[in-house]
Amino acid sequence: MARKEIIEHAGRAKTKRAALGEDIAIEGYIAGEEHEPLNSLDNFPEEYQQDLLDAGIEPSEKDRSGSFLQQDCSVVYSKVKYPGLELMSTTDAFKKHSWLNDYLWNAVPVDMDKYTAEVELEQTHGYFIRSEAGKKVTMPVQSCLFITSDKIGQKVHNIVIAEEYSELHIITGCSVSHAVNSALHLGVSEFYVKKGAKITFTMIHNWSQGMEVRPRSAVVIEDDGTFISNYILMTPVKSLQMYPTAYCVGRNARATFQTVIYAHGDTKVDSGSRAVLQGEGSRSEIISRVIATDNAKVIARSDVIGEGAKAKGHIECRGLMLSDTAEVDSIPELKATRRDLDLSHEAAVGKVAEEEIQYLMARGLSEEEATSVIIRGFLNVDITGLPDALARETKKMFDMSLEKVM
Amino acid sequence: MLEIRDLTVEVEGKEIIRDLTLNIERGEVHVLFGPNGCGKTTLLMALLGLPNYKVKKGSVTFKGVNVTYLTTDERVKLGMGMSFQHPPGIRGVKLGDMVNIAQGRKEETIDEDVIALAKRLNISIEFLNRDVNLGFSGGEVKRSEILQLLAQAPDFIMFDEPDSGVDIENIELIGGIMSELLDRNKMPSKREKAGLIITHSGFIMRHVKADRAHVMLEGRIACSGMPDEITKNVMENGFERCVELCLRGEDTEWREKR
Ligand SMILES: Nc1ncnc2c1ncn2[C@@H]1O[C@H](COP(=O)(O)OP(=O)(O)OP(=O)(O)O)[C@@H](O)[C@H]1O
Ligand SMILES: [Mg+2]
Question: Atom 29 in ligand 1: which residue has the minimum CA distance?
């Protein structure tokens, strides 16, 4: 699509309500003032350093192949340390690569809803990450989208491309400073996993009670490509709705979504993962763990659509209720369009089992300790597909965020 | 070490244990036989103080402390332990984690100590890394329970059918560890531990020598005696007949009630 046409499409979708999630008013949010670029992440104001850490960002950049930081609507830091890796703001990337237009709105439709339209029409940067063909960037790239001012509307467009037989590992955190009472985050992310390539994408959302969040993500996976998403949300959020979709278009394309949500306070989350299995022998696995307490309301969706021969998809959603005023809706869906498919789902929502608590108490734990062990266990999805060091680190990040809420 | 007096226990509003009295001294191991559903497991759960097992009457004294209304973890801290007949699986909690917990360690990793203990029960590192009891075979459940007790090293240990569904070689293995846990290899005067073992087959008795055996019927100790004698009678004649035989000549209270 030519740019002009894209803008037209966006214009027409400006008031189009999203298919899911409550309709949020996006008009009142501002771009705020420009922030000065940083020489190093260490120079980021002291008061925000902890927020970076909480979002999985390593300010020292140790063991990172590159770092990207966007504060409100300004890209304040972007640095590549690894040959074969490209990392910059999407704005810069479009100036540099004219071919990037072929990727723009190719995975996510620009006229999907008013949020995608808004990102096209009022875009405030976002990141571009690309690994060159054959380059295995085993050390993770870290990126952080951070909101530090009140009333900010962050409208980012991220594009991630793993060229043929390359490998990319991304840790990305979205964070908001404690001083912010209300803000908006619209994030479009388009991932392209080329033939034989692999992307792992570990995202920590570190929002707060005043945040309205509408990510719009999609992944296109070619022959023998692998995409693994690990999503962690442990902090409250006012309203979050997302339904990232992986299109396994190539033969033996694989997609994995692992989602861990601990919803507390008045959090409202509608979060799903969808895999469209178009390629022959393509596979997907969707795993989600949701804990709801206080007055939190969570809709946990998952959807697998089988279209290609011998495609295989599995969904495993589990919910744990810790209060009688919380709510979890677990909605797994399977759609088959031919015979030679293998699609399945398991879903369960329950409370902490009395029997399990007693078993742990019989080994010497108090009731409280036992409950906490069970909750940790419940959230303990084995993060697969990450290089060892990254897996360990992700586990650490995960334990840290868990510790804060328990 | 353990003194049970006139204990009556209710589960879900149903009286399961009735006026049960039993003493187990330091250094002793007792065996408990009884038909399915007579209340053996209920007795152990009640001794451990699990919340669904309501004591309606009587008392339990452990090491001189009245524990009748103490919580399970308090009793465990005093030195009680138990291997479960049907332990629940816990998703995301590994057997190795359970071993750390049983040892009272805050450790989160499965370290050399744990691996060394597991090795004694022929349990591999891979197995330690599995979610506890999820998909374990019958025999694996039993070994995993014994491993946790080995880590916990309680002073009074209750075993709920440690031999059910276990092959001959593993019964020997489990029996060896149980003997060790129960100080059976020490001189009688040096024995500090005590135990209560529930078994249907009696197979485990070949590897763990007991001091006394009891037959439970309908929530009561119907008769008691020497382990060899009771085991033989139960195996050859069945529970009811065993009780009759062992009560012949002694006009007990239980008989009158019948
Ligand atoms: N939670 C419960 N709710 C209702 N009834 C129960 C409960 N737990 C135990 N019971 C009943 O109490 C009785 C005694 O059960 P228990 O498990 O103690 O028997 P047992 O002697 O250990 O039998 P087995 O040899 O089969 O293991 C049974 O009739 C059982 O159905
Ligand atoms: Mg039983």
Answer: B37
